[in-house]
Amino acid sequence: MRPPVTPRERSTPEPTPARGGSNALGSGPETARQSSSPSSSESSSPAHAPVTDLSDLPPARSGRRALAWPAVPLFVALALWAYAVRHTDVSRLDDYGLVSVLHPAFWAGLAVLTTGFWFTVRDARQPGAWPAAYVLGLLVMERATQAVVYPTPLYAWAWKHEAVIDHLLTAGGLQTADQVGDMAVYDQWPGFFAAQAALQRLLGVDSAAMFMAWWPLASSLMLLLPLLLIYRTFTEDRRLIWTAVWLFYVANWVGQDYFSPQSVAYALHVGVLAVVLRRFGRSAVRGGRPRQAVWTVVITVMIVAIVISHQLTPGMLAVCLLALCLSRRYRDWVPAVTTVVLFLAWCLTAALPFLSAALPDMIRSIGDVGANVETGYGATPTGAGAIATSWAARLLSGSVLLLATVGVLRQRVLRHRARPLLLVAAAPLPMFAASSYGSEMIFRVLLFMLPGAAFFAAAALLPKFRTLAADADADADADAETGADAREAGGRRTTSAGGRRGPGVWVPLAALLGGTLAFVPAYSGKDRINYFPPQEVALVRQLFDQAPDGSLVVAANRNYPDAYASYWSVDHYWFLDDGRSHVDQIVESPAATLARDMAGVERPARAYFLLTRGQWANSEMNGQLDKAQLNRIQKSVAASPRFRLVAKNSAGWLYVLKQAGGAER
Predict the structure, then answer these.
(1) Which residue in 245, 365, 500, 567 has the most C-beta neighbors within 10 A?
(2) Contacts for 577 with CB less than 8 Å, ≥ 6 apart
(3) How far does Cα 183 stand from its chain's mean position?
(4) DSSP classification of residue 579
C-alpha cells in the first residue's frame, strides 16, 4: 500500500538558481541561462522551479538516526568483503575462475551492498554523499578484489604493456616498423606508454608491475566524474543519476579497465562527451564565444591524448560526435571536425607505416558484419566453466540493453530530453560493419554504448517521468524539434509519477541485484587464464635473464607473464597462431617438428621452448588444444635428446634446443 503524501511532499519548493547543473529533466546550460536571466519573469516563478514528486518514496524520517542508517549496510557489506578476501584461496582456481574460490561472505556482502544502495538512493531525504559512498563501495568490491587476492598482476596484455614501457625507458625513443616488427603498433601510438614511463620515473619504481594490479580500480574511478556530468546534463533526479552510474559499472564487464591504452582513452572519450553535452549545446554557444573557446581548447587537448594513444577510440569518438550533430541542440561542428582532422593527421603521419601494412585487411573487412562479429579458432569458449562465464556476460549485457529499450519506450519525456544521449548510445553500432578489430569489435561496441544504455536502463527501473502541466500536449510535442526552446520552458517542470505507475520497489531491486551478482562471473570467470602465480613469473624471468640477444622463444601461445620482455632483442614464435595444418603436425610429432622449427637459431643465440600454466589454461578454455594434446607435447619434448631441461616448477617447464657442435651450457 502506497504511503500517504505528506503536505511537505505536495508543496513546491522555492526556486533556486541553477549552478552548472540542470533542472529535473532540462538541459543544464539552458536552465542556467534562463534561471539567471533578470528579464525572464518565468525564472522567478515557483511554477518553473525543479519539482520532484516524492509520493512513491517512503514517508519522511527525521533525526540523526534517519540520516545515518545507510552507514549500517555499507559497513556490513565492506566488513563481509574484507573477511571474504582474507579467506579466499586462489591456488584452487578452476574453469569458473574467481567464482569457484570466493568465500561465501563475498556474495553476502555484495547482496547487502546492493540492497542498501537501492533503499538509500530512493530516500530523497538522505544526503547525496551516501549514494556516492555506495558506488565507491561497489568499485572496491568489483575492481579491488583481484588486486587483493592475487599476489601478481592479471592479464598477459597488461604484462605486455609493461614491456613496451620498459622498451621506451631502455631505448630512450621510438622505433621504426622494421626494427620491432609486429610491436610497431605500440611505438606508433605511444601516448599511454610515454605517460606511464614518466609516471614510473616520477614514482621511482623499477616496473609498472608495482602498481598495475590496481589499475582497474583507478581507471574506473576516472570515469565517475564524467559520467555524473553527463547524467546531470539531462536530469537532477538523484535516483536516476546514481542508478545509472551503478548499472554502468555493473555492466562494464568487458575488461578494458586493465593497465592499457584503452582504459585511459575510454575515460578521455567519456570526458569529451561530458564537455560537449554540457558546453556545446545551443544555449552554451549563445552564452559567449570566449567561454566556448576555452572549452574548445580543453577538448582539443583531450582529443590529442586519445588520438596518440589508441587506434579505435578516436573513430568511436568521431561517430558519436557526428551523431550529436543530428540533433538541433548540438549543431556545433567544431568537436566533430577537430576529432576527424586530428585523427586523420596522425594516421597519415606517425601511424602511416602500420596502417599501410594493415590497410588491405581493413578494406576487406568493411561491410562483412558476419566475419566481424564471429570469434573463430582459438577464441571459442570450451568447457563448462568457460561456457557458463560467456553466457553470464551475454545475459548481463543483454539484460541491460533490454532494460534500456524498455526505458526508451516507456519514458516518453526522457526520450525527448535525453535524445542526444540516445544518439551517442546508438552511434557505435555501425562500427560492426567497419572492422572485426581482432574479433573484439562486438565487445568494444558494447563498451562505447554503455554510458547511454545505462541511463535508459536505470530509467526503466524507476517510475515514469512526466510534466506537471499540459502533460498530454508536452508529450505529444516531445518528438518535434522545431520550437523546442518554447516547449523546454514548460517541459522543464518535470516529475516522476506516483508509485502506482512505477515498477515498484522489489522488482527493480531484484533486477539490480541479479545484474550486480552476474558481474562477478562475467568479469572474473576467466581468471584461470588471466592469473599467473609467482612461480610462473619466476620461471619466465629466469628465461629472459639468461637469453642472449637474437634468441628465439617458442611457446604454445602468448598467455604468460612477461611474454614480450626484451621483444626488441629476442624473437618469439607461438605455434598456436600458425595454420591449423602445422599445429596438427606438432601434435602428431611434437619434438621433431618443434626442433625443426627452432633449428635456424645460431650461436650465441639460443632457442628455448616454454610451456606454462597460463598457456595451458588459455589453450584448453579457448578451444585450441586440450589437456591430452598438451601433455603429449610436453612429454615428447622431455623425452627427446634434442632438448635439455633448463628449469621447471609447479607452473611450467623451460627447455633449450641443443645446438650442433660445441658443449651445451
Answers:
(1) 245
(2) 378, 557, 558
(3) 23
(4) -
